[in-house]
Fold this sequence. Notes:
Blueprint: H1 3-16, E1 26-31, E2 34-38, E3 52-56, H2 74-83, E4 89-93, H3 96-102, E5 108-109, H4 113-119, E6 122-123, E7 125-126, H5 134-144, E8 149-152, E9 156-161, H6 164-187, H7 195-205
Parallel strand pairs: 7-8
Antiparallel strand pairs: 1-2, 1-4, 2-3, 4-9, 5-6, 8-9
Amino acid sequence: MSLLSELIALGQTLVAQGLVLGSGGNLSFREGDTMYITRSGALLHQLTPQDFLPVPVQAPYQRPATGPRPSTETPMHQAAYRARDDARVIIHCHPVNAIAWAMQGMPLPAVTPDFTLYLGAEVPTLPYFLPGSSSLARAVASALAQSPAVLLANHGVLVTGHDVEQARLRLYHIDDTASICLRAQAAGALRPLSAEAIAEILAIYGSHKK
């Protein structure tokens, strides 16, 4: 299956699982110096190859005045690819648990070995920025220098990956972990993994996820 076909299938899955609604969210992949991003208004469960529009990664983005337009989040995707040379795929969607956690303004901590292997010790959380803004793009680029994903308060998440499967699993681990943390916090017993436990997991199993 081609990368494009995988992303089209992923869009259907994200909608079916309630991780995005309507025309919210966007997907992209990079080939060389060009990224292909879903067009503005595209429904992720009804994507076709024609819904992915080419945009140079490095050139300043100029939104077309007419015709099919790339997603309004194009500057954020460009900034993410510039920040992470290892990223070939980006998922941006609106998982309820992740948004609820991000509204607290705290990073999402590692509470399981799998989260640690896919995402490290924590995923940073940004404050709210206007979607599509240059300020959001700059903040995302800065956060991705330390993590392959970032939570966006009152907005959603952005996840990178070297392929669709890695990006998808990172997204799932983020939303599942957010749900675990919210429940543990409500019960009064949120205990993230210690720095020592995280170091041990990465030392023994880290190479398995590369």
